[in-house]
């Protein structure tokens, strides 16, 4: 809030003979959640003009704040009368990660946040408050370069051992290395599988087999489907 930013774009300039790159200084006035989008947006103080859409907004601290998307308006007002909104940079990471194109220099330091799919499991009756407690999980990581599966079962050591065994067996002929993260939570790394399409299939199969085993022992998967939205433009 109240930090400075620079916005770049190509809003039409009357009487100009060619498109001109326009830079505008702005201040971050607000962070907003819009009712038609699941992503964070910032409101910038620069005048919203058609042609800024798709342009980068750079933070004064040297990173990309996001992309200019649209003017937030009431009724049928002109673009210039609305607030300039900037979509946060996170959807770009999500898009690149989904297509397994996230550069290593960007993935570094995120501790496998991107390209990880996790299934959480509960067991037994819900808490009297209605909340459920996560008892187990299985997570697969596949960014097209490296692959691993993480198995966790906190409330039953025997089930954990079985889940770990079936996960390793499901990976078939792929060479693996087990790394204990903590008691009853182990990461299975596939070694020598860089850019191996069969490793991606194996990781997916191992995750399904492990999830099926947990289900057999009475664990219930907790799943959430992300909302899909379209981002209108200026």
Could you give a quick summary of the protein structure above?
The protein has helices spanning 90-98, 104-107, 157-170, 197-216; strands at residues 4-9, 22-33, 40-47, 56-59, 64-72, 83-88, 116-122, 136-142, 147-153, 176-182, 185-190, 220-222. With 234 residues, the protein is an alpha+beta fold. Helix 3 runs antiparallel to helix 4 (197-216).
Describe the structure.
The protein has 234 residues and is α+β, with helices and mostly antiparallel strands. Helix content is 20%, strand content 35%. It has 4 helices and 12 strands. It has a 6-stranded antiparallel beta barrel. A 6-stranded antiparallel sheet has the order 10-11-9-8-7-12, covered by helices on one side. Helix 3 runs antiparallel to helix 4. The two termini are 24 Å apart. 28% of the residues are buried. Residues 225-234 have low confidence and may be disordered.
Helix content: 10-25%
Strand content: 35-45%
Distance between the termini: 24 Å
Shape: elongated
Per DSSP, the total helix count is 4
| Helix-strand pattern | EEEEEEHHEEEHEEHE
Mean pLDDT: 87
Please state the CA-atom Rg, rounded to the nearest Å.
Answer: 23 Å
Major beta sheet, strand line-up: 1-2-3-6-5-4
Q: Residue ranges: pLDDT <50 for 5 or more in a row?
A: 225-234
For the sheet with most strands, the description reads: 6 strands, antiparallel, barrel
Structure class: alpha+beta
Q: Work out the number of β strands.
A: 12
């Amino acid at each position: 809030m109240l930090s400075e930013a620079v916005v770049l774009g190509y809003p039409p300039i009357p009487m100009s003979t060619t498109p001109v790159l326009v830079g505008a200084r702005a201040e971050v006035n607000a962070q907003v959640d819009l009712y038609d989008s699941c992503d964070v947006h910032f409101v910038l103080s620069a005048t919203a003009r058609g042609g800024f859409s798709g342009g980068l907004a750079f933070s004064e601290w040297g990173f990309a704040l996001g992309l200019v998307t649209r003017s937030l308006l009431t009724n049928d007002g002109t673009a210039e009368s609305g607030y300039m909104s900037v979509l946060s940079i996170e959807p770009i990471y999500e898009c690149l990660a989904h297509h397994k194109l996230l550069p290593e220099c960007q993935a570094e330091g995120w501790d496998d946040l991107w390209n990880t799919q996790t299934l959480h499991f509960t067991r037994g009756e819900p808490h009297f408050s209605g909340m459920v407690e996560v008892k187990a999980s299985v997570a697969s990581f596949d960014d097209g370069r490296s692959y691993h599966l993480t198995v966790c079962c906190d409330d039953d050591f025997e089930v954990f051992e079985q889940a770990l065994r079936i996960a390793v067996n499901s990976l078939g002929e792929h060479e693996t290395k087990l790394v204990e993260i903590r008691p009853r939570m182990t990461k299975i790394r596939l070694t020598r599988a860089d850019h191996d399409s069969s490793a991606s299939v194996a990781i997916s199969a191992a995750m399904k087999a492990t999830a099926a085993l947990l289900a057999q022992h009475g664990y219930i998967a907790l799943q959430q489907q992300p909302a899909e939205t379209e981002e209108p433009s200026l």
